[in-house]
Amino acid sequence: MNNCWFHKAKLGIFIHYGIYAVNGIGESWSFYNGTISYEDYMKQLDGFYADKFHVSAWGDLIERSGAKYAVLTAKHHDGVALFDTRFSDLSVVKKTPAKRDIVKEYAEEMKKRGIHLGFYYSLIDWSHKDYASVYAAGKVPDNPKEINPFTSPVDGKEDPEKWRRFLDFNNNQLRELLTNYGKVDLLWFDGDWERSAGQWGLPGFKDYLKSLNPDLIINSRLQGYGDYKTPEQGIPITRPEGDWEFCTTINGSWGYQPRDNQYKSLSQILRIFCDCISMGGNMLLDIGPRQDGTIDSRQEAILSGLGSWIREHEEAVYQTDEGIGTCYYLGGSTISADRETLYLFVYDNPKESICLKGLCNLIKKITVLHSGKELPHEIHGGVPWFEIPGTTWIRLTADDCHDLVTVVKVELEGKIKMYGSSGEAVTHNET
Ligand code: GLC
Which atom belonging to ligand 1 lies closest to the Cα atom of 120? Predict the structure, then answer.
């Protein structure tokens, strides 16, 4: 997907908005895991007013963050649709005092601002009467106590007819989402783990979605049939294969939980972002609006701060490819689309210089991206007649650094070429 908008977008904003914000409890999982009864969980429907929900405020913030796409929870595992669906009464339109099609307002706003439109859709629906009709991969657990009644029948008997009806229901809702709200760019599935690929009707199910929109991008939570991987909460240490996106919360919660004050700092979030793009991935950063539609000022501050940094360093972010890796440079990096510029991310203040190993190209110029200041460099070692490059030392001190991450722009003669071998004895000398 290298030429696709998704690869170049780098930052997306995830929005977990739902009735769980009324009590400020875990989205869907709180009743599934028994911390609240299903009935009490659903009482939150009565407290969902969305009375301060101004979609332009969301749009402003998302645009300010520098994100190029957004993904809103159109329906979480609790089955409560944020959109007006003909196929169920369980929606914020029909069952809450808000009586608004949140998805519609959001979709229009994203389109207006040129932000790619994404919907999160849970394949799981723990409220649907036909959902708990089969077992994961058809296997009945040996111990009936392991069966969660929201997921599977408790009597050990499958009902394939009900399951068929449930799949039709998902297909119908997805058709609504893909055809009633303009062109959707991305579908973000979740919950595939409760059924096998065969039970989800794959690959036919994917073909069906693509028949409604051939350009649709689908995340990988589709039992191996999606377009890109979605590591979650723990940053990948080795690069995931192919396209990928790291989804993360700002504190520890997806939805709004006022008691969760464990916020990551702006510089931590930015560091995570730089690590993602350095390894060729995107970051999908989550916000959890309050029930009324407003957003906690701490979440707003992170998004705004991230956006200011991105705007100052745009050319090192969008349109770039993954960098050279930490064996060459102890930090993050990206490479321009023409492969003639290398951007080095400097996370800490260096004492004297930063060190770049294995670069084969001649260097045209080195500058600090945010200030334009030109930096001197020295090259030591190397055996040009063996094509073994020396080590480049770029003089950079704390005074040259940005408050957050500093970007050093290295302009090269020709397309970047890195030396990747383990060196060798120099069996003849030319000096
Ligand atoms: C997990 C959870 C879910 C959350 C999602 C976001 O899969 O089931 O609550 O929405 O992660 O990535």
Answer: 10
Chain centroid offset of residue 414 CA: 33
286, 270 contact by CB (below 8 A):
no
Q: How far is CA 401 from CA 68, 265, 347, 367, in A?
A: 27, 19, 9, 11
List, for residues 328-373, the tens digit of each pLDDT value. Answer: 999 999 999 999 999 999 999 999 999 999 999 999 999 999 999 9
pTM, rounded to two decimals:
0.97
Tokens encoding 251: 């504190």
Q: Which of 190, 185, 180 is nearest to 213 (CA)?
A: 185
pLDDT tens sequence across 185-241? 999 999 999 999 999 999 999 999 999 999 999 999 999 999 999 999 999 999 999
Q: What contacts 74, CB < 8 A, 6 or more positions away?
A: 81, 82, 83, 103, 119, 120, 121, 177
**Residue 53, φ and ψ in degrees, nearest 5:** -80, 105
Question: Cβ–Cβ contacts within 10 Å for residue 326, how many?
Answer: 12
Q: Look up tokens 């989205």; give the residue.
A: 27
Instruction: Report the nearest-CA residue for atom 10 of ligand 1.
Output: 254
- Alpha-carbon span 280 to 333, nearest angstrom: 10
Q: Could you give the CA distance from residue 81 to residue 83 in angstroms, rounded to a whole number?
A: 5
* Residue having the nearest C-alpha atom to atom 4 of ligand 1: 254
CA–centroid distance, 244 to ligand 1, in Å, is: 16
